[in-house]
Write a structure and sequence with these properties.
The protein is an alpha/beta fold. It folds into two domains: about 190 residues, Rossmann fold (3-Layer(aba) Sandwich); about 90 residues, UDP-galactose 4-epimerase, domain 1 (Alpha-Beta Complex), CATH 3.90.25. It is about 40% helix and about 20% strand. The strands form four sheets. Strands 3-2-1-4-5-6-11 form a seven-stranded parallel sheet, sandwiched between helices. The chain has a two-stranded parallel ribbon with strand order 7-10. Strand 1, helix 1 and strand 2 form a beta-alpha-beta unit. Helix 1 packs across helix 7, helix 6 crosses helix 8 and helix 6 crosses helix 10. Keywords: Isomerase.
Length: about 300
Amino acid sequence: MLALVTGAAGFIGSHLVDRLVADGHEVIGVDDMSSGANVRPGLELWEMDVGDPALVERAAARRPEVICHLAAQVSVRASVADPPADARTNVVGTANVLEAARAAGGRKVVFTSSCAVYGVPDALPVPPDAELRPASPYAASKVSGEVYAATYKALYGIDYTTLTLANVYGPRQTPEGEAGVVSIFTDALLAGRPTRVYGDGTQTRDYVYVLDVVDAFARAAGEAGGGRRLNVGTGVETTDRELHTLVAEAAGAPDDPEFAPPRLGDLPAMSVDPRATREALGWAPETGLREGLAETVAWARERMAPA
């Protein structure tokens, strides 16, 4: 299979490239290199923005069977500060990726969404058929992308699966994005800098390890899960204070964060129900949080070590 991965130099995308190559697939990467820095040696990389019309032309020439679309503007706060910029990447860019799939005669697009689309849910963990309540331009852009994907399926027969991700963490992560707190805690604790927890530390998130996430992408690139939104998470809530304790334990550092006032707009709690994903893709998270954090801290320690 020839697969095209957008955001191929990014946190999740670079791991997905590694997984697809290990599975024996040919992979093309697309990345504008504005934030990603993890290019697999030997990868055929198209250095361009996902909104570039040239993407459609190049895809038509190379004809990838599947496009895994991970490139995105991922900051909720940046989307609030500049909604048009967020939309140019996440809405227009996604439409361009779908048009590239059409021009290529592609079979399927795997679209990356976020648990932010659920807003403040009625119950946890959130099922994939829950009402969508986007509360930021970023979340709205992800809802838009899923609607576009469904529209292309209806018009042109291009299959899609939407993977709605919980808070992904692991090696190669940067502090930006929804699960950036793991990277923030890790870097600060390894460097002996102060750490900060917002509010009283009881805010919860659902943390899922990056290699488990790319396993869901690899499965969704097949025939299963077509036309569906599927949650990729553990269904387990972890408080900010608990997370700090676990990262400090892995780093061998004091578990003594500062506390700051809560940030406006932060959701009090989130976790997603992955049972439908297990049924559709045969997928389940394999990596416990303590194990995943140990791997993440080990990677960060090596990265921060003097040359």
